[in-house]
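Project outcomes to date are best conveyed with an example. Our students and postdoctoral researchers have been running inverse folding experiments weekly, and each run begins with a structure described purely in tokens. The record below, which covers 424 residues, was selected by the lab manager from last quarter's runs and is presented without edits.
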């Protein structure tokens, strides 16, 4: 959430940033500033009334304490106190309504894109592209959903029978390959000093709100109405909420954490070729990494996260590219996002497998996540998150890019995790 003080000082910068996002509710910014002025005015009036109350209270105390004076306070003074109390009560009701209205409007404003983020995608936003040297290319390559049937790796129809569309069932070596990928990604993250967590798959409303998914992505989340719990759409939510309402020391930072979870998303509006096979699912596995940093180091650690994920993709020998997203494609809480995409030989298109984002202090403001600087000043932390990695499209690309006529070869780094060199 943006701070009102930041909006007040940086109105033009914010409007420019929201324009990059193609955010339509620009009028909210001025409405927030008007409400903030009203809030300050009412707070001033409440303070003035409190001052007058104190003055009258002192007079009454003086009258009561004066042995030579009257025992009972003057009726006019009593009426004054009563009047001020009623006035203050009315002002507090007004103040409460303004604060609630202000918070509702603030909840709708996304993070402001970093200055480097552009309106439209340009050539230099494709930061690099790498071809995997050992990928086998064959003519008439089969897409992964056909390979799954041929080698009995996963079954989408069985998932539909048990639950509904978008819930695959992994079978035999397909299940073991996915499990191997999960463990490999976790091991790589742990070796890079990320601390592993294992979480419930349910979150409460405040956890979703604190990281920016609620109310922005509430329609895409699965709600268990009886208990008012949500199925997690990403491991970022429980990871970040471990630090909600925390005051850290600068010595504690950066904090680096990782988790493996199933993720649940409605993915409303998905249709066409994108829903084939594992390309878009309602439940999928993902290994997540997050960092909590100081404001002056967050972009350094963003580069570190990018390099870490790049090295994992290189080890899998997959063709990949890195893209910096333009303003309109940024997530609600993100100030800057980089996407890794792997190339599918059979589908002949790029598939997103990881998003790495710096949310600056947007999430930490909602999380009330702060740290004490070397000088003792209290500041908001910066938060970063990234997929390391999302499983379905990695699985799709591995199957398609490593197929031969009679088998699918397994990258060398995964053999210790799968126990087999190929799928036949």
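After processing, the design step wrote out the following sequence:
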């Amino acid at each position: 959430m943006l701070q009102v003080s930041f909006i007040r000082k940086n109105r033009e910068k914010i409007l420019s940033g929201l324009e990059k996002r193609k955010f339509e509710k620009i009028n909210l910014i001025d409405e927030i500033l008007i409400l903030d002025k009203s809030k300050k005015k009412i707070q001033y009036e409440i303070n003035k009334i409190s001052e007058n109350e104190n003055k009258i209270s002192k007079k009454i105390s003086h009258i009561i304490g004066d042995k030579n004076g009257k025992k009972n306070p003057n009726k006019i003074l009593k009426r004054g106190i009563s009047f001020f109390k009623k006035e203050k009560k009315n002002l507090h009701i007004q103040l409460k309504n303004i604060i609630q209205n202000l918070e509702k409007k603030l909840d709708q404003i996304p993070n402001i894109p970093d200055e480097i983020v552009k309106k439209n995608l340009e050539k230099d936003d494709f930061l690099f592209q790498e071809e995997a040297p050992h990928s086998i290319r064959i003519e008439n390559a089969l897409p992964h959903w056909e390979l799954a049937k041929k080698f009995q790796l996963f079954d989408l129809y069985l998932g539909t029978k048990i639950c509904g569309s978008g819930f695959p069932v992994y079978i035999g070596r397909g299940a073991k390959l996915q499990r191997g990928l999960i463990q490999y990604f976790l091991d790589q993250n742990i070796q890079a000093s990320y601390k592993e967590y294992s979480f419930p798959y349910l979150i409460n409303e405040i956890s979703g709100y604190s990281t920016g998914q609620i109310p922005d992505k509430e329609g895409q989340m699965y709600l268990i109405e009886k208990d008012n719990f949500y199925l997690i759409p990403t491991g970022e939510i429980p990871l970040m909420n471990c630090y909600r309402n925390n005051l850290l020391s600068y010595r504690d930072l950066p904090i680096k954490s990782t988790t493996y979870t199933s993720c649940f998303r409605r993915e409303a509006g998905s249709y066409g070729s994108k829903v084939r096979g594992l390309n878009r699912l309602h439940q999928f596995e993902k290994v997540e990494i997050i960092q909590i940093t100081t404001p002056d180091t967050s972009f350094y650690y963003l580069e570190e996260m990018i390099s870490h994920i790049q090295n994992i993709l290189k080890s899998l020998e997959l063709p990949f590219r890195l893209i910096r997203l333009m303003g309109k494609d940024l997530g609600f809480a993100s100030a800057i996002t980089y996407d890794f995409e792997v190339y599918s030989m059979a589908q002949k298109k790029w598939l997103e497998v990881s998003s790495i984002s710096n949310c600056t202090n947007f999430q930490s403001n909602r999380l009330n996540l702060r740290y004490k600087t070397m000088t003792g000043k209290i500041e908001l932390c910066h938060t970063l998150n990234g997929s390391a990695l999302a499983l379905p499209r990695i699985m799709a690309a591995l199957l398609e890019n490593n197929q031969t006529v009679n088998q699918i070869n397994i990258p060398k780094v995964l053999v210790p995790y799968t126990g087999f060199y190929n799928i036949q």
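The two ends are 51 Å apart (CA to CA). The chain has two domains: 4-107, 123-423. The training component of this project remains on track.
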